[in-house]
Write a structure and sequence with these properties.
Blueprint (H helix, E strand, L loop, with lengths): L1 H5 L13 H11 L11 E6 L2 H19 L4 H4 L2 H12 L6 E7 L5 H8 L4 H8 L2 H19 L3 E5 L6 H8 L6 E9 L13 H4 L17
Antiparallel strand pairs: 1-2, 2-4, 3-4
The structure holds flavin mononucleotide (FMN).
Flavin mononucleotide binds next to helix 5 and strand 3.
């Protein structure tokens, strides 16, 4: 409970470096995640070189600039949202460490059968719900939780993936691996705030439904 409840996204870090043995331990714990077919469709690239982190930030900023210049940018929302997006996309470069999380393709017997039967990609994604990405997500959740347990803070980031093509070049990512997320990590500067959650009653329903009265289940 402490590991799960004490974790919050951390976006500001001290300059303390993160020992590589701690990075290895975080990733070891992340790889204990449940994953489809135990295919372990994940790889991790840990970047603790400030020059490379700065180059990655430049790539993300260039991509944001490019997207802000698209004719559709205004219709998509106010400029302030674009600015906020920039802040939420680049702070990894001020962390002592960013871990690029890569996903690998995963194909089960069911996937092959659906494809062979001619089921279109969109319907296949609907029926399979991307077990490859679910698996990587499970690992990222454990990665950020492991960071917390080891006394660090971390933030799971998907916004920088908008610059995936350039980031993959900088990181030497080779096909078929794809950048799925970045995780910024380091010692937290300050106490991260807890974000609210919906009440369990709003996100969970039982079948069959429970009786509405609070007097417990009806007796015959
Ligand atoms: C898939 C995913 C993508 C996210 N991307 C970003 C991001 O790009 N930038 C960011 O600052 N936070 C990002 N977050 C962190 C969420 O904003 C954060 O988890 C959420 O607000 C709940 O707060 P908590 O992590 O402190 O509980 C991401 C989280 C997830 C799971």
């Amino acid at each position: 409970m402490a590991a799960v409840e004490g974790r919050h996204s951390v976006r500001r870090f001290t300059t303390d470096p993160m020992p590589r043995d701690d990075v290895r331990e975080m990733v070891r714990l992340a790889t204990l995640a449940a994953n489809a077919g135990n295919a372990q469709p994940w790889r991790f690239v840990a970047v603790d070189d400030p020059a490379l982190l700065a180059a990655m930030r430049d790539a993300v900023e260039a991509r944001m600039d490019e997207m802000a210049g698209w004719p559709e940018a205004e219709a998509a929302g106010p400029l302030a949202a674009t600015r906020a997006m920039r802040g939420y996309s680049t702070f990894f470069a001020d962390a002592p460490l960013a871990i690029a999380v890569l996903g690998l393709p995963y194909e089960s017997h069911g996937d092959r059968l659906l494809a062979a039967h001619g089921v279109p990609r969109e319907e296949r994604d609907r029926l399979r719900a991307r077990p490859d990405l679910q698996s990587v997500g499970a690992a990222v959740q454990l990665l950020v939780t492991a960071a917390h347990v080891l006394g660090y803070g971390a933030c799971w980031m998907s916004a920088p993936v908008l610059a995936a093509r350039r980031l993959e070049e900088l990181l030497g990512v080779e096909e078929p691996a794809r950048l799925v997320a970045l995780v910024a990590a380091g010692r937290p500067a300050g106490r991260p705030a807890a974000t609210p959650r919906l009440p369990v009653a709003e996100v969970l329903r039982f079948l069959p439904p429970e009786p509405e009265s609070d007097c417990g289940p009806e007796r015959p």
